[in-house]
Amino acid sequence: MSQDSCIICHFKHYGELSDNDEALLAELEQSPTEIKGDQILWQEGDVAREFCTLSKGWAYSFRHMEDGSRQILEIYLPGDIIGLREFAFKERLTGVAMLEDGVVCHFPHRRLINVFRESLTLSAIFFAISSHQQALLTERLVNLARRSARQRLAHLIYEMYVRLERTKARDGNSIRLPLSQQHLGDALGLSSVHVSRTLTAFREEGLLLRSRQRVELPDPEALAREAEFGDAYLNDGIDHFFHH
Amino acid sequence: MSQDSCIICHFKHYGELSDNDEALLAELEQSPTEIKGDQILWQEGDVAREFCTLSKGWAYSFRHMEDGSRQILEIYLPGDIIGLREFAFKERLTGVAMLEDGVVCHFPHRRLINVFRESLTLSAIFFAISSHQQALLTERLVNLARRSARQRLAHLIYEMYVRLERTKARDGNSIRLPLSQQHLGDALGLSSVHVSRTLTAFREEGLLLRSRQRVELPDPEALAREAEFGDAYLNDGIDHFFHH
DNA sequence: CGTAATTTTGATAAGCATCAACGCTAGTGG
DNA sequence: CCACTAGCGTTGATGCTTATCAAAATTACG
To answer: pLDDT band at A1, cuts 50/70/90?
Structure first.
């Protein structure tokens, strides 16, 4: 077990795992499935009986509206767990699709009950992850409801910048961002046209440089100020429950 | 135990409880505290060490923005658990305030760990409640990002109409709604002025009648259509895990 | 190298915010 | 019981932010 899997690494952020914990987690990653970019994992309304761990690639959850538009709710990075939202539901509440080629591992809801039975630490960590996802959603909601187009865009990109630091997927001040302007607009409640204009403005101001799938932040702190970014919602952990 | 407490009744919606489960839950409601309307339970940034069960009265969580505006994130009804969001955090991410006089019961995060240890059923139910709250947030996010002022307002009121049915706090087609137009605006990302205009329009169309703290829905289904209301996100339950 | 998808740019318009003034209602003290 | 006051709700006028439509420019891809 020299090379930790993505999810084990993710869980270790929350607390120390016993060998038994690691074995239980490894069980959840039994059946890795390769998935192509743009492929849909499930649609709103599908029967919901399993979660998914995302081992490789980016994904997002979305909702189609009656007027044909689409809202992107969450962007998942490698190591994230997908579908926690639907634990208490029989149907999927949102669709999930890949942003690029990747690997996912399915495991049934019932197996989570097993985990609850076997490991107190993992129970607490799963609960913490659910609470962390709630915090991300809350911040997104505030972002959408109360901020300008400039702030929304700055906020999303800065959030990605911070989240990618944790997974060590950052490259200096530059990150890979496999999202089209259409995706960004769908996530931010903006038209792709307005996303384009706003990105142009940021470029002219030297706040953000975008080329192909990369984004460079020449002055990350200036971007954070523009976004009125507060990072409290990303600083989670439950160590204190166990090591007093 | 003839008269179930609010929270036990709430939990029973998710599954059958053993006597031990009920005893554990009763422990969480040990120290009821009376709270006046408009009083603040906690502020963003306060140390987070406990949850709260809301036994009586309505409450809401909110965030103050730098420009002085306020976003209301969640509206809590009697029986709801407050503060689950911060299980994995040391600080409160949002403030919480009462909408009217009420009663709350505090219990520390650590006691939840105890519950995890003692009862598999309650572990699953707590997880289900967290997932249900995530579903509510998701729907609110979609509402704010993608719908018009008319739809947002119709959606919020119809959601309350449905949630109040579950707690049997409905009175024919009329509900009590202790929210000012300012509150509604803060929840919907609208100015109170625009809320007023929209309510007037609904009144003239016979969709909604508002007087003092009451709202009447002469034709609930018409309102649901106006809101493009999908009720999947309210139909939760985890019975299927336990009785086969 | 050709074709499709994405991004950019310009012009116009919708939706909602903001400001300001006025009316109503509920709660208060005389 | 009534007059007074403060908060809440209503209405009108104006303007900003962002959507929408359409077309051109660029990039990605087979």
So the answer is: very low
Give the total residue count for chain A.
244
**A141, A157, A187: which is the final residue of a domain?**
A141
The confidence band for B29, taking pLDDT boundaries of 50, 70 and 90, is confident
Do A113 and A74 reside in the same domain of the chain? Answer: yes
CATH of the domain at B180: 1.10.10.10
CB contact under 8 Å between B142 and A65, yes or no, is yes
> Do A232 and B91 count as a contact with CB atoms less than 8 A apart?
yes
Comparing alpha-carbon positions, the chain A residue that sits nearest to B86 is: A131
SS3 B227: helix
* pLDDT at B243 (0 to 100): 62
d(CA A206, CA A234): 26
Beta carbon of A123 within 7 Å of strand C?
no
Q: Judge residue A201's burial from the number of C-beta atoms within 10 Å of its C-beta, 0-12 exposed, 13-18 middle, 19 or more buried.
A: middle
CB contact under 8 A, B86 and A131: yes
Q: Are residues B59 and B111 in the same domain?
A: yes
Note the pLDDT tens digit of each residue in A73-89: 999 999 999 999 999 99
- Tens digit of pLDDT for each residue in A196-215? 999 999 999 999 999 889 99
Task: State the DSSP string of B95-150.
Answer: EEEESSSEEEEEEEHHHHHHHHHH-HHHHHHHHHHHHHHHHHHHHHHHHHHH--HH
- Reading the block at residue B149, the tokens are 């002022």
B99 and B212 in a single domain? The answer is no
Chain centroid offset of residue A164 CA: 10
Which of B28, B73, B34, B35 lies closest to B53 in space, CA to CA? B28
Distance CA B79, CA B70 (A): 25
Task: Identify the domain containing residue B130 by its residue range.
Answer: 6-141
Give the residue whose CA sits closest to C24 at C1': B212
Half-sphere exposure of A74 (CA within 13 A, CB side): 25
Distance from CA of A117 to the nearest CA of B (A): 6
For the segment B207-220, the average pLDDT, to the nearest whole number, is 93
